[in-house]
Amino acid sequence: SRLNIALGKKYFDKYEFLPELSLSLPDVKPAVPDISIFPKAPIDLLEDQIKVSEVPLSVIEILSPTQAIDDIKEKIFNIYFPAGVKSAWLIIPTFRTVHIFSPDKTYTTFNSGTLHDPATDISLELDDFFP
Questions:
Q1: Distances from the Cα of 99 to the Cαs of 25, 34, 87, 102, in angstroms?
Q2: What gap in Å lies between CA 127 and CA 6, rounded to an integer?
Q3: Tens digits of per-residue pLDDT, 44-88?
Q4: pLDDT tens digit string along 81-121?
Q5: Nearest C-alpha neighbor of 39 from the set 57, 66, 25, 22
């Protein structure tokens, strides 16, 4: 929740940050990222969707104590990127670490200071969401 608040405070006018959104993306199996980042757009609450087929700009996955990194890596490289997602964050809270992956299989690791996602131009201080 701290991350969603930090993102919203700084980028509410530019993006929608949607938690636990069911994605039904073209040509890949369904997935539910912890947070999906979409460009800001009008929302029609009368036409709420159970599954969204629009590809998010970026997705954020937060490693839980019972998850394997390989499971998230599989989602990133076999679901999100083939569908057209531009970046994927893997957050490892235990180590206060964020890895931001690109479709070309490069990534940048942040464990202090300011993280920056070139695909969305989002920059955040890690202290804004890590306790």
A1: 23, 15, 10, 10
A2: 10
A3: 767 766 788 899 999 999 999 999 999 999 999 999 999 999 999
A4: 999 999 999 999 999 999 999 999 999 999 999 999 999 99
A5: 57
**Helix residue ranges, H only, 14-92:** 69-75, 81-83
Q: pTM for the whole thing?
A: 0.93
Cβ-contact 57, 86 below 8 angstroms: yes
Q: What is the pLDDT of residue 41?
A: 85
Spatial contact of 100 and 88, defined as CB atoms under 8 Å apart: yes
Got the DSSP string for 3-28? Answer: HHHHHHHHHTTTEEEEETPPB--TTS
Distance CA 11, CA 90 (A): 19
Nearest to 91 by CA among 15, 18, 34, 12: 34
